[in-house]
Amino acid sequence: MLIAKNLSHSFDYLLFENVNLQINPKDKIAIIGSSGSGKSTLLHILSALLKPQNGIVEYEGKDIYSISEKELIEIRKKEFGIIFQFHYLFNTFTALENLQAAAILAQREVDMKLLERLKIKDVINQNIQTLSGGQQQRVSIARVLTKHPKIIFADEPTGNLDKENANEVIDVLFEYCDENNAALLTVTHDYEIAKRFERVYELKDKRLNIWK
Ligand SMILES: Nc1ncnc2c1ncn2[C@@H]1O[C@H](COP(=O)(O)OP(=O)(O)OP(=O)(O)O)[C@@H](O)[C@H]1O
């Protein structure tokens, strides 16, 4: 589905080199590593947001940084779902309006069962700015799943949540992948959360090594 070959990237210093990774349907992959090791940068490269200085990223056989801008926008819009550390929701809209906007763009419906699973059904008519950080994070996860992506890229998706809610969010993401033949790639600081994933890599000493 997605193959990354020989990626390397630097900003002020070399972040990583010779990174290779393959993502298949239903894969659940976590990337751990210390702060500043380049986890978010790698996630951006894999999710079509940042061209790597070296190496290629292929999605369904096509090098995503060589295809036309139009094709790339279509992949970003329809195939990839990105959960950022910051939610980027429309602050003056209600939670439901945010989800409806995503549903209209993706020609899908808002799934009420999903809102129940994410424990945001009761706050769905509140403005985003009146929700807690954890509730905002769960709305942003619901928004991404409403699109029905083939690959979910998540940057610290449980960062604002307590242990119980964090585990429930991971359950929802895993279920989504199993039911929709989709894949999940998560960046996390949380080793307890990482242990729940089938495959875990650690970004360390400028390399992506298998951790589990
Ligand atoms: N656009 C940018 N321009 C310059 N430097 C950047 C840019 N993006 C990231 N960096 C630098 O690259 C390094 C790695 O950042 P990155 O966010 O990928 O790390 P991380 O492992 O995700 O960190 P954290 O766990 O703290 O979120 C940092 O030193 C950061 O300042």
UniProtKB/TrEMBL annotation:
Xref: CDD domains: ABC_MJ0796_LolCDE_FtsE
Top-level division of the source organism's lineage: Bacteria
Annotated ranges, domain ABC transporter: 1-210
Record carries keyword Endoplasmic reticulum: no
Protein name, as recorded: ABC transport system ATP-binding protein
UniProt-recorded Gene Ontology molecular function terms: ATP binding; ATP hydrolysis activity
UniProt keywords, alphabetically: ATP-binding, Nucleotide-binding, Transport
Similarity annotation: Belongs to the ABC transporter superfamily.
Short name of any one Pfam family annotated for the protein: ABC_tran
PROSITE patterns registered for this protein in UniProt: ABC_TRANSPORTER_1, ABC_TRANSPORTER_2
InterPro entries: AAA+_ATPase, ABC_transporter-like_ATP-bd, ABC_transporter-like_CS, MacB-like_ATP-bd, P-loop_NTPase
